[in-house]
């Protein structure tokens, strides 16, 4: 079980959190102007890589805040956590 | 039985405390301090079980948690009965009852033993190959296979014991209290680290605590004496907690570990009352030191599984720790020096050793010379090729090994014995290390896997790290711990060791035999009866991956998880396939290290604590008024209120009729309630609901439908505008938490610029819904000050009011199609207001109704229930709810998905009403809907989602989803059931009062 450093609360057990999938997928500002394919790209296509991955997490049984996490899925090492809206760290530096 | 098997020399056995116990219905005696295994051995009993597949007689093989054979049923015929318990771990107590498993009628005479004779036709994969055909016979085979599968008997009644969970946070966790573990714990604790030391045994010190040999000394003291002083010292350190009888089951990432602490298993049953039996420790350690030691390897030769064949180290432990001789005429069979330590322990007590068979040609260690001096014949360069004796070994035959160790040469010699100790060297116990994600490396010199890459802040020390010599163990532990904890003061100034052993070993994974391979039975996995032959067969049949070979032969898949034989399986695979050991890796070690009881896993979460449940503020009234309850999410909701022996159907029919004819009352407190405030609240609702919200006037209510981004219906409910920037949203009972999560998600991540604040107020209010033609009269009696005229208080509006000076919100909204009011009041006044309504409604036959009636009433009106009539594959268009989807709004969650090529298909499943040909026939929810039963395969068009008998319409009504259903109005369809086909007609889903006359009636 991970020990997650919530950017608002500090270190907490994983059981307080909920994973929210890939990070930095921005909802299109004008969905109605997208083709079916473009909309499907936003709606369905998610990466699931072995290695360093950018993810969204929610401290659902804590402060209820969403934040971002950089995690190596091959060994579950958490490389970084940062608030929504903050600039993500450069992948090769984490 | 044989008194000459017990030696009164052990300080671990209390000879003044005799203990009686029953094994296979016979009474035996042992002493306090014995394990079941040591007590049985002292009584001359080796045969304790039958093997899984061939039902071969099996004896006690080891002295610890790695035991594959001596697994017994404990507390037979009682509520505490437990299968597959290792006799080597059970500490005996007065009155213990145990019996053998997997044998009938008895362990000495077992009918299943016939499988042993049939073994030539029972190779690996026998069951897979044989019971494949004819496929239709599977059900008949299954009955017999199921009967013969499995080992012990599971308990049939509730466990009477108490279990609990405990969290522990420490700086340093040390697993294993052998020499390395004790040194590590002392160094950590004395340097200020809050330290926890755990060991699965009842005593500290590991195997060194009974090492009284002159051949291993520390600081010129016998190892056990030196260690006793160390143990005495650490027991006084304040910030060191020591837990014995505590077995680490799992080592997860981030140094999170699970351990089972046994608290009462060693006590007589009458001393266990009201005590916690086992505790699951959830340990989060900053640093972990693994000192789990190593497990002695057996040797793989023909018939290596007979009772009386034990690990050499086990024989040593039984004599040194328990004072029990495993045999009176012993032979040791080894490929390394450790068996000579066993020999010395036997020699010291004058126990006969007939011979030592050593695979090695050259043996050059002090201890081996000492053994030879005692006139014990050592057969150098020899191997055992066969053993004899059915229920107990009585003879072995040996032959000389060829130079390359691949064949045997010369003549066969037979030797008598009643006990054979085997030693194939040692395997580091790296199970926990690999569970934590650690990577191993293979050390060629002595053919062991040792820790290589650590995934977290942890270290392995001692023989689990591949350090086997006493000096190596001590010096490497010292230097590793110093570095790991970053300390100078090691607490150990100089530690000098003397060891009479050297580390030479002649490793042969599968020892050769004079028989052909097909005629041998060399067991690799004792518990699952997997032999070297089976592994070779798997390779011949094309299996290459160790994980595949494991599953095909079941090697390593027993309750012991192959602690003894896994390495040999790997060795035989690599030898046969001509590959390198290191390349195969090992099979995955999975938690738990030793089995956990279900009681320990669930802890206190049993009975009423199994799952939390939520009660409404009016719950007690429902209980007092005979309500049956239904679980909705975590809520207990009143389901129906049976009167005078009514069944559910009768109660629901009465409640439904009363609600439409006069008045009904429902506890709707469980509906999710989210308070929404902020200057952008209206804009926010515009984006999350399909319909428009900007123009909703203050004081008005509106029904909303919420979609997922994929266009599918997610939730629904009525939202009321309480003020300019203040709304209260209601959600479905089960969806409340998820809806809040979803709204927070959009607010925080997509639209952080919106000024909106959400908070859950579900528990803050009790919600009472009064409906029916007389609802207005009742509410006017409860809240006389409130003007209920249609002009002042029309449908879909809200008023602030007071009941006995307590503020409340009253909404005129309806889920039944009747004129109705919903009173929301501070939760703690819920029950008294409910009772007030009941009192006021007395003259109008006000009838409390539960969720079942609510569902029936809404179905009459064709109102959907999200999650019952929908299942995340239906859009609002599919539900024929086009009216609620705004065409004008630029965007809302899910809008773009409503005209994807898939969502605009005409033949999607769509919600329709269904009427049966026979109005008395009520459909089954979930039943399939078809059009043509003659065509094969029959095309499934959809299914029934809701179905009731309506007392108000006096006929059966149903909702369902049907492909292209929108355009099928009036069409005949068929519901095929097991015994009959039911004819239905597609109808409008609104069955009652489509014009809304009831809702708008002037009352």
For this structure, what is the CATH homologous superfamily of the domain at 162-294 and 428-499 in chain B? Answer: FAD/NAD(P)-binding domain
Q: What is the correct CATH architecture of chain A? A: 2-Layer Sandwich
Mean pLDDT of chain A: 94
Structural class of chain A: mainly beta
First and last CA, distance of chain A:
21 Å
Elements of chain A, N to C (H/E): EEEHEEE
In CATH, what is the class of chain A? Alpha Beta
Please give the count of helices of chain A.
1
Tally of helical segments of chain B: 24
Largest sheet descriptor of chain A: 4 strands, antiparallel
What structural class do helix, strand and pairing data of chain B support?
alpha+beta
CATH homology-level superfamily of chain A = Folate-binding superfamily
Care to count the β-strands of chain B? 50
Features:
heterodimer; A: 94 residues; mainly beta; Folate-binding fold; two-stranded antiparallel ribbon; B: 1003 residues; alpha+beta; Ubiquitin-like (UB roll); FAD/NAD(P)-binding domain; 7-stranded mixed sheet
What does this entry look like structurally?
The complex is a heterodimer of chains A (94) and B (1003). Chain A has 94 residues and is mostly beta strands. Chain A has a single domain, classed as 2-Layer Sandwich (Folate-binding fold). Chain A is built from 1 helix and 6 strands; from the N terminus they run βββαβββ. In chain A, the strands form 2 sheets. Chain A has a 4-stranded antiparallel beta sheet with strand order 3-4-5-6, with no helix packed on it. In chain A, strands 1-2 form a two-stranded antiparallel ribbon. The two termini of chain A are 21 Å apart. The model of chain A has no long low-confidence stretch (mean pLDDT 94). With 1003 residues, chain B is an alpha+beta fold. Among the domains of chain B are: 3-117, Ubiquitin-like (UB roll), CATH 3.10.20.440; 162-294 and 428-499, 3-Layer(bba) Sandwich (FAD/NAD(P)-binding domain); 306-421, FAD/NAD(P)-binding domain (3-Layer(bba) Sandwich), CATH 3.50.50.60; 508-607, no CATH class; 905-1003, Elongation Factor Tu (Ef-tu), domain 3, CATH 2.40.30. Helices cover 21% and strands 29% of the residues of chain B. In chain B, strands 8, 9, 12, 13, 14, 15 and 28 form a 7-stranded mixed beta sheet that branches. A 6-stranded mixed beta sheet of chain B has the order 41-42-43-40-34-44. In chain B, 49% of the residues are buried. Classes of the chains: A mainly beta (94), B alpha+beta (1003). At the A-B interface, helix 1 of A face helix 20 of B.
């Amino acid at each position: 079980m991970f020990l997650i450093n919530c950017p608002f609360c500090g270190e907490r057990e994983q059981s307080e959190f909920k994973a929210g999938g890939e990070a930095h997928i921005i909802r299109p500002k004008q969905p109605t102007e997208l083709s079916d394919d473009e909309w499907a790209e936003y709606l369905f296509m998610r990466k699931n890589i072995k290695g360093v991955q950018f993810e969204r997490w929610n401290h659902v049984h804590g402060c209820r805040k969403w934040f971002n996490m950089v995690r190596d899925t091959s060994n579950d090492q958490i490389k970084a956590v940062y608030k929504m809206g903050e600039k993500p760290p450069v992948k090769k530096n984490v | 039985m044989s008194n000459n098997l017990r030696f009164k020399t052990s300080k671990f056995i209390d000879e003044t405390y005799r203990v009686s116990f029953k094994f296979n219905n016979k009474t035996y005696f042992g002493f306090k301090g014995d394990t079941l295994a040591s007590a049985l051995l002292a009584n001359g009993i080796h045969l304790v079980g039958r093997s899984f597949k061939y039902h071969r007689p099996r004896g006690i093989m080891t002295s610890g948690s790695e035991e594959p054979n001596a697994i017994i049923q404990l507390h037979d015929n009682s509520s505490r009965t437990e299968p597959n318990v290792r006799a080597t771990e059970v500490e005996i107590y007065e009155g213990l009852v145990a019996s053998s498993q997997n044998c009938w009628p008895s362990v000495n005479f077992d009918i299943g033993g016939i499988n042993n004779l049939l073994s030539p036709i029972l190779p690996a994969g026998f069951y897979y190959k044989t019971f494949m055909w004819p496929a239709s016979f599977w059900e008949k085979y299954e009955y017999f296979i199921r009967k013969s599968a499995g080992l012990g008997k599971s308990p049939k009644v509730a466990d009477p014991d108490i279990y609990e969970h405990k969290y522990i946070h420490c700086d340093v966790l040390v697993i294993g209290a052998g020499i390395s573990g004790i040194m590590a714990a002392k160094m950590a604790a004395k340097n200020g680290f809050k330290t926890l030391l755990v060991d699965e045994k009842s005593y500290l010190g590991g195997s060194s605590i009974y090492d009284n040999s002159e051949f291993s000394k520390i600081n010129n003291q016998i190892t056990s004496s030196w260690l006793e002083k160390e143990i005495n010292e650490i027991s006084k350190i304040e910030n060191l907690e020591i837990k014995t009888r505590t077995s680490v089951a799992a080592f997860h990432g981030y140094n999170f570990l699970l351990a089972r602490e046994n608290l009462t298993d060693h006590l007589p049953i009458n001393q266990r009352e009201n005590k916690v039996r086992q505790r699951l420790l959830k340990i989060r350690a900053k640093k972990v030191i693994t000192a789990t030691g190593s497990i002695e390897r057996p040797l793989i030769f023909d018939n290596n599984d007979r009772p009386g064949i034990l690990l050499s180290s086990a024989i040593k432990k039984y004599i040194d720790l328990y004072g029990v001789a495993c045999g009176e005429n012993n032979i040791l069979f080894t490929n390394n020096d450790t068996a000579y330590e066993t020999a010395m322990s036997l020699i010291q007590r004058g126990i006969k050793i007939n011979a030592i068979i050593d695979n090695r040609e050259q043996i050059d260690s002090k201890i081996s010379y000492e053994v030879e001096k005692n006139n014990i014949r050592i057969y150098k360069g020899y191997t055992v090729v066969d053993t004899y004796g059915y229920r107990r070994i009585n003879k072995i035959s040996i032959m000389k090994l060829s130079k390359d160790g691949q064949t045997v040469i010369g003549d066969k010699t037979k030797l008598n014995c009643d006990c054979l100790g085997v030693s194939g060297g040692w395997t580091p116990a790296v199970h926990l290390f690999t569970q934590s994600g650690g990577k191993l490396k293979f050390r060629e010199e002595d053919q062991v896997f040792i820790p290589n890459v650590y995934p977290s802040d942890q270290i392995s020390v001692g023989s689990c790290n591949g350090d086997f010599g006493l000096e190596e163990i001590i010096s490497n532990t010292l230097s590793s711990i110093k570095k790991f904890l970053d300390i100078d003061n090691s607490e150990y100034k100089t530690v000098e060791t003397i060891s009479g052993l050297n580390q030479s070993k002649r490793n042969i994974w599968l020892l050769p035999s004079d028989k052909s391979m097909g005629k041998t039975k060399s067991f690799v996995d004792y518990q699952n009866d997997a032999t070297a032959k089976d592994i070779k067969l798997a390779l011949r049949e094309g299996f290459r991956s160790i994980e595949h070979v494991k599953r095909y032969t079941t090697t390593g898949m027993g309750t012991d998880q192959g602690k003894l034989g896994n390495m040999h399986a790997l060795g035989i695979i690599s030898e046969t396939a001509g590959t390198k050991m290191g390349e195969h890796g090992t099979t995955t070690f999975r938690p738990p290290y030793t089995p956990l009881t279900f009681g320990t896993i669930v802890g206190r979460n049993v009975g009423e604590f199994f799952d939390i449940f939520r009660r409404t503020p009016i719950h007690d009234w429902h209980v007092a008024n005979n309500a049956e309850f239904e679980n909705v999410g975590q809520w207990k909701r009143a389901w129906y209120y049976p009167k005078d022996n009514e069944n559910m159907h009768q109660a629901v029919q009465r409640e439904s009729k009363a609600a439409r004819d006069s008045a009904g009352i429902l506890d709707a407190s469980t509906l999710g309630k989210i308070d929404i405030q902020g200057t952008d609240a209206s804009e926010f609702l515009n984006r999350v609901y399909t319909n428009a919200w900007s123009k909703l006037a203050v004081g008005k209510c509106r029904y909303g439908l919420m979609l997922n981004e994929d266009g599918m219906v997610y939730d629904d409910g009525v939202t009321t505008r309480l003020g300019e920037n203040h709304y209260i949203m209601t959600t479905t009972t089960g969806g409340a938490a998820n809806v809040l999560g979803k709204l927070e998600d959009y607010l925080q991540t997509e639209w952080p610029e919106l000024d909106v604040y959400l908070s859950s107020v579900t528990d803050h209010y009790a919600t009472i819904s009064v409906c029916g033609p007389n609802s207005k009269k009742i509410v006017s009696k409860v809240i006389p000050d409130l003007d209920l005229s249609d002009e002042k208080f029309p449908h879909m509006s809200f008023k602030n009011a007071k009941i006995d000076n307590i503020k409340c919100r009253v909404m005129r909204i309806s889920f039944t199609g009747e004129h109705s009011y919903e009173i929301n009041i501070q939760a703690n006044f819920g029950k008294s207001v409910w009772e007030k309504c009941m009192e006021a409604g007395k003259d109008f036959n006000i009838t409390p109704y539960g969720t079942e009636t609510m569902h029936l009433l809404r179905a009459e009106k064709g109102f959907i229930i999200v999650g019952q009539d929908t299942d995340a594959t239906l859009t609002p268009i599919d539900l024929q709810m086009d009216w609620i989807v705004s065409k004008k709004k630029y965007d809302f969650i899910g809008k773009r998905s409503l005209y994807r090529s898939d969502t605009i298909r005409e033949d999607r499943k769509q919600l329709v009403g269904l009427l049966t040909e026979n109005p008395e026939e009520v459909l089954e929810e979930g039943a399939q809907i078809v059009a043509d039963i003659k065509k094969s395969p029959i095309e499934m068009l959809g299914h029934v989602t809701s179905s009731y008998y309506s007392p108000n319409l006096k006929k059966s009504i149903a909702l369902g989803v049907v492909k292209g259903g929108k355009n099928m109005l009036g069409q005949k369809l068929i519901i095929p059931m097991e015994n009959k086909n039911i004819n239905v007609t597609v109808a409008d889903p609104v069955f009652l009062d489509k014009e809304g006359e009831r809702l708008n009636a002037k009352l």
